[in-house]
Every structure is written in structure tokens, then in C-alpha cells.
Amino acid sequence: MTMTTNTMGSAAATHNLGIRADHRRNKRQARALHQFPTAALNGINNQFSQSPVIGLDNSSIQSGMNTLSDFLSNGSSSGVTPNSATPVLMNDKMNSFTPKQFSATSFETPVSMLSPSKSQAPDSYNSPYVQLDFESLTIHDMSPIVPTQRWEDQLVYLTKSYGTNSSKIPPLPSTQFYCHEEDGNCDPRLLASSMCTIPAEESLREATKLPLGLTVQPFTRTIPTEEISVIKLNNSTVTPSILTENYEVGPLRCRRCRAYLNPHFQFTFDSAVICNICNVKMKLANEQVAPIDVDGKRSDYSIRPELFKGCVDFEVPSLYNAIPDKETLPLHYLFLIDVSTRSIENGGCISFIHSVKRSINYIRENQPNCKVAIMSYDKNIRFYELDPSFERCREYIVSEIDDCFIPFNSFFFASTIESQNIIETTLDQLASTIENHMDLHLSDNCYGSAINAAKLAFDTFLGGQGGKIIAQLGSQPTIGSGKVNTLNEKAGKTSLKPDLSFYKDLSKSFNKSFLSLDLYVTAQSFVHLANVGYPSIATSGVVKYYGMFTYERCNFILCKDILHNISIIKGYQAQLKIRASNGLSINKYFCESNNNSDEDPIIPVITSSTVVDVLLKYSDKLKKDTKLFIQAALLYTDINGVRKVRVINTSAPSSSSMTTIFKFVNQNVIMRLMIRQLLLKSHSLDFASMKKSILEDLSSVAAQYRALISGNSNKQFVTADTLMTLPTFMLGFQKSKVMKSTIQKTFNNDRISDYFKYFTMNQSELSYKLYPQIIPLHIPLAGGDLSFYDANYQLLRISVGSLENLTVRNSMSQIVNGGAYLIFNGEIVYLWFNENTNRSLLEDLLGVPATIPIEQIKLVENKLRKTGTRINKKVAETMRYWSQIVNKRYIPLVPLRPQIDSYYPNVIGSILIEDYSMSKMDSLNEFTASINNLSSTKIQNKQFIKTSGNEELDITHQKFVQF
Ligand SMILES: [Zn+2]
Asked: Distance from the CA of 193 to the center of ligand 1, in angstroms?
């Protein structure tokens, strides 16, 4: 850092690049290591444009997206009707549709297409429709079979929106729905409780045997996709903020519990306000007072979104900055490339460089205030100066990897606009050296030291403000800090946690510096994922592990993954705080950054996929039958450097009726909390006891329900109808790779990669992961089936008459020889077909002539090519629907052919979770029977918790009516 500019300047002038800073503390000198031949430099641009990979410029990203999922969460140019708050129905021949305008705050239910005539209801199938009008169908009436329940739930929300004013259970995470906020409660995709009616005291909660907690997704995509209102600090804006205490102090907050102003703050006639969280009354300053009407509403209610919206952003003053008294900055990115031999050999390195180039293009076009830096590493650490006045790349090489320094003091981070040429030249030259100078490559890699040096660079240039490191790793780190030796490999078989303290300590210091790491592992042999990937998981980053990376198979997917992960970034330097009404407090945030404690977790970089699960506890009894409030406040800096706090509010009634409590359980949040708890116990890899614990938990819930509510029934499986499919999803978890007892070395990476997914998957992704959705394509479909229902291209339509045909359970017995299926597991869409599949169907769908043997059918770039046929359009719309639900820009389409694709056995095993598995795991029937048996035994042995509220059984019906 103290190296003089002059020395560097002259060295650079002589050699242009390849400058080695082989330093001693007192005598830092730079010398040339190698020089790129000018001819190679001149040719590089041509090479790039001819390369099949680099040929994917921005325009082809867009065209690729058109086929699949060209929506962007931050605005779209995909031809979607821009006015998202006005979902007009698609105009088609189903003339029972009456397009109706939907207002922003509520919208009317359009005339239903779903008044099924009784003859439409399939009689062989256990259908509720015979008795029920579809519009009034609730989770309580739905099928206990996951695939059927999914369609039923989607059908319900085709014709109506979800209103947030009552203790209804939110739609399933696999359902796309329009939400209208009521009563100041947010869209449940942002914040949802595991219990929509909260037990009035811990003993009642305990008697349900269910966890009380929350799932928070502060930046998830909601529908309508209107922008979250920003309450500005500055008086000159459209929304003047007299409700800030003053401009230095920030938004109005409760003086006692520090809750933020929200729609449930109660303004009183005596110029005061009462906090909804802790009930403390505060006097308002004169300028904050407004006249109040008979309903208690302020006269300025309608112009202040913070008084009626469930979720708003407040701009906050410098007092709230991540580093006090230091100005906030736009987000900074650092790309870290593994240029060691093994990373180069399998094409991982070159694939990553191409992806970096496209990522930087994306940043230039979409995040123009963000700056970028480039580093690489083998046995040395290499820095690149991105000075816009340079014509050639300047590379500085530091060999003292564990005593690293930054060899220059400007243009480490560079504007993607001003430095566009030098950034491109640097990446081109790097690619050229890799492809043309194989003799120069070094086999050792110092990954641990390199990410440490990346942190040093952030700390040096940005004063600890943090940002995003996007790193690639091509093989096991062999030298420097965090090198992994063979002995460590053994340790990797017995733990999911890092055994090297280097990676744990590094993760802590990353969080302190608001640094997040995304890691792309392009190795072709074992790398110790539990160690090298840990800093990503602990800093809210992602780890992408491609198994045996090959250029042909993975190049396109790698690029899409990186672009996607950049496009979903919403901010950084974030910290989450949950506040709840008196009597409820935080037990733990499930976050590695705070060691799963009750400390407010730091989220160095936050994305639209970020999800935090929170377990609550009772600190006191709650008032019965009152409204309880929950507020999530996320302090963050947006990607342009504006400091804000996102305040998300919801409410739920309390109750002491067990029937009511069970009736309003949100199974999805329950499932997430159960899994997070289990994962905490998973480090020892004692899978037998984990399985036992799953069975024990589920049978305890069933026993409590039977003992306290349903009594002894003749039904085969008795549990609350709100929890009907919980065993199925938990069986899915039990069958996931993280729970497999195999301890082969390579397999262990699959396990750890799977384990990591549970930290990063959002609600919808997890639902599809645990129980993939299978859609048959060879069945007769009605004209409107599998096409978009609304003009915003959000809701996928199926007709009630097709429901039976479209329901495929995840069992081999349901897969028809000669059929064709689309299967989605949250990450990948598989297309299942075999040699008996109707070739006309494949021709219509994929545009492949019947003469091509099925083993030769390829899906180029894992995309569905447009063929213009009906089935092709349906599949394209289904894929887009899925990609929107899981909030992904892109989902690859991959063929799944028995006896042809090498991954077939592995993949099909993870899909057919209802079957008895190869690893001797129960079928769904066996699993359900075990739960029933164990719960019966518990009841017989009186092993259940009685509540004083048992006598309420006879008045429960009346209780329901109150909600
Ligand atoms: Zn308060």
C-alpha cells in the first residue's frame, strides 16, 4: 500500500502487464513475470466473438429469456402488460370470463369459470367438488395428496385474490396468487407466521407440538408487482415526511421498544400515538399532528403509505449508516478467478471468465453505479489495475500470499462505464493467456489466501463497507491459508461443518466487514466443500457445485447462474430485527452469521431470494382473543448506496382454543422450522436418530390432535386438515441427499451441496425440492390448460375437468411407459420420455423429426426451442410460471431418459419420493402408517399433553365464527 506510484508507473510502462510484486516489506519492487504477445492481444477480440460461448452477447441472453423466463424482478421488457395492478383476464373463447378491473387496494372476483357441473367432477377420484363450490374451497376441504392439493390451491386463486385482513392461511408456496393488502398487513410472501392464530400461552403452544415462528422474505417478488413505497427523508418529495422525528433522527419510532411507525400505530385525539407492539403512548411534536376522524384515521392517511401499507421502505439518516459517520456507497463487486492448472484443464476457468464478462455487461446496463474489481489466483495472487487511461491489462502478482498487500492504490474498483475498455481488455488478455500459454500455468491454488486478500482489498479501498465477492474454485486448495490436506478429506465424511478454523474465522470477519461470498465450484475431482463453501453459507451467499464440471455440460448453466445471482441482489450491509407484541420474543434466528442465536443477524448482501426463518418464544402469557402484531425491520443499503429500513408488518389474533389454533396452522412455515431445527442436529450425521426424531415429532402432533380435538376416529390417518401433507414433505426431506447415510468421498460433496441448499432456497424452491411437481404432456388437455390465465402472465390455468388427468403422484406406478412428463424440482425442469413416447408429440414439442433416435435428441443450451405448436407453447408457459414462482430468471430444461442419461437413476430416485427407496427408506404409505401407529400408542399410553382448554371442545364451532 505504501508502494510508490512512480515505481509502479515505470514498471507498468515497460512491461504493460505481468508485473510481479515480489515484495519485502521495506523494499517493494515490481518486475515483469511475462508479457503477452501483441499478436495474441490483437486477435483476442476476434476469438471472443467467434467463440460459441462469447457469442452469447446480451441480445442473445434476452432472446433466450423470451423462450423461458424473461421476466426480471426489477422490471421487465417481456411484453407483459405493464400495469401489474390491473390484471385483466386473458381474452379467449372461454366466454364465461368477464374481464373486470382490479383496483390497487382490492379487486373483485371475476366471474368464475369454475362452477363445475357435477358431471365434470371425476367420480373415481376423491373429489370435494361434488359437495363444494370451488370458490369457497379452503385448505380444510382440499385433497391430502400433494399434487392434487397444489392444483386445487392454484384453482382457488385463479378467481380471487388473497386478502390479508383475517387469519386465513396463506396460499401454498407453489401457488401463484394476487394479494391485496388489507388492514395494514403485508403480503404473506414477505412475512408469514407458522400459526395464523397464536396460542395465548406457551402451554397451549406446547400442546400442539408445533413450532411457533416466522418465515421472512423481505425482498421476494409479490403480485401485483408494484414498487414498495419509499418514505423519503427529504421534505421536497411528493411524500413529505413530517412523521420523521426530524431529519437527523429519522422515521417516527416507539421510544420504548423502538418499533417503526406502521399502520397499527394508533394516533389519539390528544396529539399522541400509541405503539402497537409495546402499548406505550408518546406525545407528538406539533408538526407531526394531523386531525383525526371518527374512525381514528389521520386526515393525511391516504397520502402516507406508511399509515396503510403492510410494507414500506423508510430512507434513514446517516445515524443509521453501517459505519457511523461514513458515507454509504453503492455496492461493489469483486470477481476472483482460479487460474491454476486444474481449473483451466476442464474449461471451468475459461467458462468463468466468459461469465464474468457478461456479468459486468449486466452490471453496466442495470446497476450503473456499482463498481467492479478483478483478481485471480493460482499459487500467487494477481491484481488488475482498471485505470480507464490504460490500453493494456496490468497484472500485479503477489507471491507472499499470506502476507498479502495491494500493489497499487487506485482503480482497483472501477466504474463499468468509464473503465469498460480496460475491463474487457483485461478479461480478453486473461482468456488469451489461458488458452494460448499452457506452459505458464501453475498447479497450486491458494483459494483461502485469495479470498482473504479479496477482503483486504475491500477493507483497504472501501474502509470495511463490504460488498460481494464472486469466486470460482477449480480444485482443492493446496497452499496458503485454508489449504486442505488429505487428512481433512476424512474429516469431511463425518461432519457437515468446516473442520478448519480458518474458514470459520474468515466467515466471522467477512460478516463484520459486510462481505458476502458467492462460490462457483468447477472442479472435476473432490474439493472439501464443507470447508471451502462455508464462508458463502455464513455470509448469505450461494455455493454452486456442478459435480464433475465439464465445459460442454456446464458452461451455459454456470453463466446463467452467475447472471441470475447478480440480478437478484437488492442491497447490502443489512441487519434484521423482529419485534412482536408483549409476551412474544425471539428464540433464535436460523442464521449462520449469528450462530443461530437470538442476536439480530447480519446479512452482508440481500437478494430477492433471501429467506430467514425465525423461532419465537413466550416471555409471558398473551392476552386472549386480542390482535398481536409482528414487525420485521430490515436495515440495509440499496445497491445505489441509499440507506433505508424496510418495515414489514403483520398481525394475528391470539386464542386459547386448541381447535382454532390447529385450524389456522400454516403448514409450510411449520415445515421450514422443523427442517431448520433438524439441520442444527445434523452435524454429527447421525441420520438414524434424525429419522427417529422426525417420526417422533409428526406422531406427537398427530397424537395431540387426536387426543384433544378429533377424538378417536375411524379415519385411517388423523391429523389436522391443515397439516395433511406435512408427512409427505417431511418424507421428502428424509429422502434428500443430506440425509443419505452413504459416506463415499465424492458422494459427500453431493450431500454438503444439498445441505447448503437448505440455507439458500426460498419457500417455493424448497416446496418443489421436497416434492417435485410432475405434469403429464401426453394426456388430452383442454384448450386453456397450461396457459396463462391473466394478462400479466402470472396465473397458470387448468380446467377442473383436467384436474384428475394432471394429477401425477411421485411414484413409479404413476409413470406410464410411452408417456411424456415435465418435472420440476425447484431448480431444473426435466423432460421425461422414453423410446415408446409418441414421436409426433416430441416433434411438436421439440421440433425433432421422428427419424432421430431418442438418445440423440439434444436440448441445445438447455432451452426449449420455439416450434409454434400448441404443446410447445403450453410447456413454455408452464416453465415460465414455475420460474416466476421460484423467482428465477432462468430454469434449465434437461432430458430425463431411462437407460440413456447417466444421471437418470439418481434424479428419478429424488423425484419419486412416495416409493420405497433404493436406500431402504419407507414409502409414503409405510411412513404414514408408522406415524399413525406411534400416535395411537401414545394415546393408549396417555403420552400426550392435556390442556385446561379441553372443555372448550363443545364451543369450538362458535369460536370459528368469530374469525
Ligand atoms: Zn413500542
From this structure: 20
Query: How remote is the CA of residue 60 from the centroid of ligand 1, in Å?
Result: 52
Residues of the domain holding 421: 329-567
Q: Which of 616, 633, 663 is the last residue of a domain?
A: 663
Cα 579 to ligand 1 centroid, rounded to whole Å = 9
Average pLDDT value for residue range 650-666? 94
Please check whether residues 273 and 306 belong to one and the same domain. Answer: yes
Higher-scoring residue by pLDDT: 940, 632: 632
Task: Kindly give the distance from the C-alpha atom of residue 585 to the centroid of ligand 1, in angstroms, as a whole number.
Answer: 13
Q: Which of 543, 567, 591 is the last residue of a domain?
A: 567
Q: Tell me whether residue 537 is in a domain.
A: yes
Considering the domain architecture, whether residues 500 and 367 belong to the same structural domain is answered as: yes
Is there a single domain that holds both residue 651 and residue 783? no
Is 829 within 8 Å of 822 (Cβ atoms)? Answer: yes
Residue type for position 847: G
Whole-angstrom Cα distance, residue 585 to residue 253?
19
Measured in angstroms, how far is the CA atom of residue 647 from the centroid of ligand 1? 14
| Residues 277-316: tens digit of each pLDDT | 999 999 988 888 889 998 889 998 988 899 999 999 999 9
Helix (H, G, I), strand (E, B) or coil at 253: strand
**How far apart are the CA of 239 and the centre of ligand 1, in A?**
24
> Do 484 and 630 sit in the same domain of this protein?
no
Instruction: Find the 672 Cα to ligand 1 centroid distance in Å.
Output: 29
Q: How far apart are CA 239 and CA 232, in angstroms?
A: 7
Q: Are 815 and 895 contained in the same domain?
A: yes
Pair (305, 354) in one structural domain? no
CA–CA dist 427, 375 (Å, integer): 10
Higher-scoring residue by pLDDT: 156, 82: 156
Q: How far does the centroid of ligand 1 lie from the alpha carbon of residue 283, in Å?
A: 13
Q: What SS3 state is found at 293?
A: coil
* Residue labelled with grid coordinates 464440471: 549
Residue 105 has pLDDT above 60, yes or no: no
What is the Å distance from ligand 1's center to 253 Cα? 8
Q: Are residues 280 and 382 in the same domain?
A: no
The set of residues, in sequence order, having a beta carbon less than 8 Å from that of 103 and lying 6+ positions away, is 85
Per the CB < 8 A criterion, the answer to whether 621 and 572 are in contact is: no
- Going from the Cα of 512 to the center of ligand 1, the distance in angstroms, rounded, reads 29
98 burial level (CB within 10 Å; 0-12, 13-18, 19+): exposed
CA of 279 to the centre of ligand 1 (A): 6
Same domain, 553 and 455: yes
